Amino acid sequence: MGHKIKSKKAKPKKKADKKAEASSPSNPAVASGPAKVWQPGVDALEEREELHFDVVRDQLGLVRSKFPHTLYGVAGTQAEKASWNYIGIFKISNINGKKREPIPASAVDGDSDMDSENSSDEEDEAVNEDMKPILHLKKVAHTGCVNRIRSMSQEPHLCATWGDTGHVQVWDFSSFLNSLAESGAGAHKEDDKIHNQIPVKIFGGHKDEGYALDWSPLVTGRLLSGDCNKCIHMWEPTSGS
């Protein structure tokens, strides 16, 4: 069931306009070397550039004070050809770092304290040199670019995507997340395989593509999506969903 709400938000530039602006020789903002941070309307897109991601809530606890940490997430690509796009469901484990004290140490001892801190930092770097994060990735084919992707906080395995095809789709990634949870330290050969999966639901009520997308934190399953035609749709789950 969908509700449509009119909005007065201005229509953003189309992708073609952004690419033309990025490739224009009169644009001085384009860096000559490789960009560290992708800038909309400035940097050109690579073959499978991932422009939007969301953190998937897990059951590992809200307060995590001990390393290493583990993170789950989803991301979408914006490739040159529609058939090249996919959704990435990923797990980053073995995330290490240095625990910081909530209150800085007193500087009463002056240089002696500074020397001890420097030596401690060097020791930590030597110990953690080989403790690099481990990435596991599952890919699911997505027709068209992924403008936005959101994971539902109440049911994290359910994710919604806003595509440049003008459709909002809901996906069930429970099998991929379970597989990632059971994955070990080594990389899997399957990480580069792109799986084909049918969405749980496809919303086709929009007349244009959009970028606004979010789940309700209060009502499970309620989804808001906004398009470039100044329309906002509110989708409600039904008993048969």
Overall radius of gyration: 22 Å
Strand content: 25-35%
Number of alpha- plus pi-helical segments:
3
Class per helix and strand makeup? alpha+beta
Spans of at least 5 consecutive residues whose pLDDT stays below 50 are: 18-32
Task: Give the overall silhouette.
Answer: globular
Keywords:
Methylamine Dehydrogenase, Chain H; 4-stranded antiparallel beta sheet; 14% helix; 241 residues; 13 strands; single chain; 5-stranded mixed beta sheet
Your description of this structure?
- 21% of the residues are buried.
- It is globular and about 50 Å long.
- The longest helix is centred in the middle third of the chain and has 17 residues, at 111-127.
- Helix content is 14%, strand content 33%.
- It is built from three helices and 13 strands, in the order E-H-E-E-E-H-E-E-E-E-H-E-E-E-E-E.
- The protein has helices spanning 15-23, 111-127, 174-181, and strands spanning 2-6, 48-55, 69-79, 86-95, 134-141, 146-151, 158-163, 168-172, 194-195, 201-203, 210-215, 223-227, 231-235.
- A hairpin with a 3-residue loop joins strand 12 (223-227) and strand 13 (231-235).
- It has 241 residues and is α+β, with helices and mostly antiparallel strands.
- The strands form three sheets. A five-stranded mixed β-sheet has the order 2-3-4-5-9, covered by helices on one side. Strands 1-13-12-11 form a four-stranded antiparallel β-sheet, with no helix packed on it.
